[in-house]
Specification:
Length: 455
């Protein structure tokens, strides 16, 4: 077997194209395991500096040294895409990884969520994020680390609080309320309009336009809202908020399609390996062993799966769909769906039983109790952590004349209250940039109304 995995890369790419995969070019690079962990923690090879990434890195390092975490590759969709492989992977592992990456590249080029995000943010996210990092480095030089870090604290604490129903570049709210419609041109309407004029005028006949409320409706896109309406936010601070927001828009499809995307990549790396007649038998066997580790439902020392492996679930679902409906039907699903529609539409009772999926309650004694086997409840239990980008549903509801801000937690949709310590800390961060009193309306653990204030 050739000792360099790159020898097999053009052969795998040619095979992938012949089987119908359509992907942008991918730049592959082998890097040390420590750099792999840095990339996975920061989310990008070069990203804005912040202490929170160091905390995440330490956690990832501990998990790795305990044997609970191993990174084979990190992929960034784009044109070109970027894939980082661990230098300590075996040749067979990197052959599998390159096939897996091409499955991801096919998914990200054709899935509608990825296409929308890349069209709005950038197809060159690695370079785009590096520009953000340089801008922040310049801000640190000009304004000092404490000031810049305070803004990053606030922005990164809200990185999940975006609204993908809006465009990345959206206009500010209208400054004034819309004028009421002109009366119809009939006698009754004219007489009625004379009693209730559609525009207020002073004695000189000048029209008084009423300023619109801010926000005119509950606003979930908190990064955008603070960037646009914080009373004393400076331009460079606003740019940091918008940079974090752009990067969140880029990452959202990765989060929203994890089961589909990892399953699709796993299906294709398995199929490419099966059909790669140029691979030596020993390399094929080693790569298939690696595949089995990737898509296993749970660790071999466990007797029950308490956490779903998205690789295993997605791989199994795609296999069933392709076996039943064919690859072209699967490609339509891949292009149009996210994990919500994918799980609800294609994880049926037979497959749930086969995979032994259920909703459970783990007691402190270690006893596991099945509490719900109904399919719709299973779907919602699996998808609940994905709602609202995995964050509680918080919206800006009102800005008072003095600039004080009211935030509203949609606890009915979330089905729970907030972690009060964490919520208080996040409000501390926001208060430093909003610079006016803030109140958050939520509920406590008992369901009673609760206000958390900062002033």
């Amino acid at each position: 077997m050739n000792a360099d995995w790159r020898y097999y890369l053009p052969k795998i790419e040619k095979l992938a194209n012949s089987l119908g995969l359509s992907f942008n070019p991918v730049d592959f690079e082998a890097v040390p395991q420590s750099f792999m962990m840095e990339i996975s923690v920061y989310g990008l090879p070069v990203r804005m500096p912040h202490w929170s990434f160091g905390v995440r890195y330490i956690y990832q390092l501990i998990q790795h040294r305990m044997g609970n975490s191993r990174l084979f590759e990190v992929v960034f969709p784009g044109n070109p895409g970027h894939a980082y492989l661990a230098q300590n992977n075996s040749v067979a592992e990197n052959v599998l990884v390159t096939a897996h990456v091409l499955g991801h590249a096919d998914f990200s080029r054709n899935n509608i969520m990825f296409k929308r995000a890349q069209d709005q943010v950038s197809e060159h996210i690695v370079e785009h994020a590096a520009n953000h990092a340089r801008q922040i480095a310049l801000a640190i030089e000009e304004y000092g680390l404490p000031r810049v870090e305070a803004v990053l604290d606030a922005a990164l604490s809200l990185e999940q609080h975006i609204d993908c129903n809006h465009a990345v570049r959206r206009p500010r709210y209208p400054e004034y309320e819309a004028s009421k419609a002109l009366p119809r041109d009939d006698e009754f309407s004219k007489r009625f309009a004379a009693l209730t004029p559609f525009e207020e005028r002073d004695n000189a006949g000048q029209v008084h336009r009423k300023r619109a409320a801010i926000p005119p409706h509950n606003e979930k896109d908190l990064l955008w809202f603070i960037a646009q309406y914080a009373p004393e936010l400076e331009g460079w601070e606003r740019d940091i908020f918008l940079a974090v927001r752009e990067e969140s828009f880029y990452f959202h499809p990765v989060f929203a399609t994890q089961i589909m995307n990892e399953g699709w990549a796993s299906y294709w790396h398995a199929r490419l390996l099966r059909e790669a007649d140029f691979l030596p038998q020993s390399a094929y066997v080693d790569a298939i062993k690696c595949h089995s580790d990737v898509v296993k439902p749970y660790a071999p020392e466990q007797h029950i799966a308490l956490q779903i492996n998205p690789y295993h679930l997605g791989f199994t679902m795609w296999e069933k769909i392709i076996e039943r409906d064919g690859i072209e039907a699967a490609r339509v699903i891949m292009q149009q769906d996210d994990d919500f529609s994918f799980v609800r539409n294609y994880l049926d009772e037979n497959l749930a039983d086969e995979l032994q999926l259920f909703k459970f309650n783990a007691q402190s004694t270690g006893k596991i109790e099945v509490v719900e086997s109904k399919l719709s409840d299973l779907h919602e239990a699996m998808l609940a952590p994905k709602y609202n980008f995995g964050a509680p549903s918080i919206a800006a509801s009102h800005v008072h004349v003095d600039g004080s801000l009211e935030l509203q937690h949609d606890f009915k949709s979330d089905g729970r209250g907030l972690d009060q310590d964490r919520a208080s800390k996040v409000l501390d961060y926001i208060y430093r940039v909003w610079r006016r009193p803030i109140v958050l309306h939520t509920i406590d653990d008992g369901g009673a109304q609760l206000e958390i204030r900062k002033h």
